């Protein structure tokens, strides 16, 4: 009788870190996709995310998805 290896399913997280470009000054900054507070640009202070209760609304341009 052959033995089969069972695959153990491990759930993957739905949240990611995002590299976001500021629409005003062009600064790139890492933010969390499910941010629960307003994230502001470190250079000019423009708001980059708006919390919505789940996923954050990204107000800048997403350059890259990290991880």
N→C terminal distance = 41 Å
Order of strands, widest sheet: 2-1-5
Low-confidence stretches are none
Shape: elongated
Question: From the 3D coordinates, which CATH architecture would you assign?
Answer: Single Sheet
What series of H and E elements makes up the topology? EEEEE
Number of separate domains = 1
Structural class call reads mainly beta
Radius of gyration over alpha carbons? Answer: 18 Å
Approximately how much beta-strand content do the residues carry?
25-35%
Helix content, binned percent: under 10%
CATH class: Mainly Beta
* Average residue-wise pLDDT: 92
Fourth-level CATH superfamily: Ribosomal protein S27
Task: Give the helices and strands, then pairings.
Layout: E1 17-21, E2 28-32, E3 49-50, E4 57-58, E5 61-66
Antiparallel strand pairs: 1-2, 1-5, 3-4
How does this model look, in words?
The chain has 67 residues and is mainly β. The protein has one domain: Ribosomal protein S27 (N-terminal domain of TfIIb), CATH 2.20.25. Helix content is 0%, strand content 30%. The chain is built from no helices and 5 strands. It has strands at residues 17-21, 28-32, 49-50, 57-58, 61-66. The strands form 2 sheets. It has a 3-stranded antiparallel beta sheet with strand order 2-1-5, with no helix packed on it. Strand 1 (17-21) and strand 2 form a beta hairpin. The radius of gyration is 18 Å and the shape is elongated.
What is this structure, in a nutshell?
The protein is mainly beta. The chain is built from no helices and 5 strands. Strands 2-1-5 form a 3-stranded antiparallel beta sheet, with no helix packed on it. Strands 3-4 form a two-stranded antiparallel ribbon.
């Amino acid at each position: 009788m052959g033995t089969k290896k069972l695959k153990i399913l491990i759930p993957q997280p739905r949240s990611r870190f995002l590299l976001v470009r500021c629409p005003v000054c062009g600064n790139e900054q890492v933010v969390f996709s499910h941010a629960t507070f307003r994230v502001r640009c470190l250079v000019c202070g423009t708001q980059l995310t708006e919390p919505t209760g789940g996923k954050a609304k990204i107000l800048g341009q997403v350059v890259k998805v990290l991880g």
